[in-house]
Amino acid sequence: MTNFHYIGKEASRPDGPDKAAGKALYIQDLQRPGMLYGKIKFSDFPHARIKHIDTSKAERLTGVRAVITAFNTPEIRLGFMRDNFALKKDKVRQYRDEIVAVAAIDPEIAAEATELIKVEYEPLPGLFSPHEAMKEGAPLVHETDPQGNSRTDNLVPLQFHHESGDLEAGKRAAKHVVEGTFTTPMVQQCCMGTAGCIAELDMNSNLTIWAKTQIPFLAQRDFNRALSDMGLAGKNARVIVPTLGGSFGSGLDTHCYEYIAILLAFRTGYPVKIVYTRAEEFANLSPRQSSTTKIIQGCDQNGKLTFRHVEVLQDNGAYTSWGATYPSVMMMPATSLYRISNVYFNAQLVYTNNTYCQAMRGYGNPEFTWALESNMDKLAEEARIDPFDFRMLNSNKPNETTPMGLKISTCGLKECLETVAQKLNWKKRHKKGKHRGKGLASLIHVGGGARIYRSDASGLILKLDDFGNVNVYHGGVEMGQGLHSVLTLAVAEALGVSSEKVLINPTDTGTCPWDVGTHASRGAFMACNAAILAANKLRDKIFGLAEVFYPQEVEKNLKKLKKKNPNYKPPDFDVIKAARRENFELQDGFIFIKDGPQESWLRLELARLLRAIHFRNQGQMLTTEVFYDPPNELPDFKKGFGNISATYAFGTQGAEVEVDTETGEVKILKMVAAHDVGKVLNPQALKGQMYGALAQGIGYAFYEELLSQQGKILNPNFRDYKIPRVYEMDFPIELEFIESNDRFGPFGAKGVAEPGLVPTAPAIANAIYDAIGVRIHDLPITPDKVLAALKKLK
Amino acid sequence: MKKEISFTLNGSEVSVTIDEHLCLIDVLRGPLGQTGTNEGCREGECGACTVIVDGRAVNSCLYPALEVEGKNVTTIEGLQEPNQKLSIIQQAFVDHGAIQCGFCTPGMIMSAKALLDTNQNPTEDEIRDVLLGNLCRCTGYVQIVEAVKQAVVQLKNKK
Question: pTM of this prediction?
Answer without folding.
Answer: 0.97
